[in-house]
Write a structure and sequence with these properties.
The chain is mostly helical. It contains six helices and no strands.
Length: about 160
């Protein structure tokens, strides 16, 4: 059996259509990185709950999560085009983007907590909606949901202690 001719493969199924989704998460990561330029010092200066991870863990963790988010978005788009699921994917990405400046740049820990609760709800809803369309995409989003829930608990602990 020979591979299908590229001219008959629908554009949504071509691998290079993944690039805009990866670009979107790279942009969010980059803007977040700019907003968190002094995050290590800020994080170390805070009274942290005992379950707080070391600051060096956040970069590698988010790098993997952003890759998963981008691939999941691409899979969802391929499976169903642009609709409410994809709109929710964008909303959760914008909520993700908003948290870092609120927490690190502005020091608004309580506002950031409210915002991250909204992010967790959006990601949870995205996992549910994704399940119907692409179970692979839904599973790719589960580690992200777990991390956001952990980050919510961490943010809450910081609010209480500071």
């Amino acid at each position: 059996m020979s591979p299908p001719d590229a001219s008959v493969v629908p554009p949504a199924r071509r691998w290079w259509t993944l690039l805009p989704f990866l670009a979107a998460v790279v942009a969010v990561a980059g803007i977040g990185g700019l907003a968190a330029s002094g995050s290590r010092e800020t994080y170390r200066a805070l009274d942290l709950p005992p379950y707080a991870p070391p600051s060096w863990l956040f970069g590698p963790t988010w790098s993997v999560l952003y890759l998963l988010i981008g691939v999941a978005g691409w899979l969802l788009w391929r499976a169903g085009g642009w609709d409410r699921v994809m709109s929710l994917w964008v909303v959760q990405l914008l909520l993700n983007l908003a948290w870092t400046p609120l927490f690190f740049a502005a020091g608004l820990y309580t506002v950031a907590l409210v915002e991250i609760v909204a992010l967790a709800a959006a990601v949870a809803l995205l996992v549910v909606w994704s399940w119907r369309r692409s179970r692979t995409a839904a599973w790719l989003l589960v580690p992200y949901l777990a991390w956001v829930c952990f980050a919510t608990a961490l943010n809450a602990g910081i609010v209480v202690l500071n």
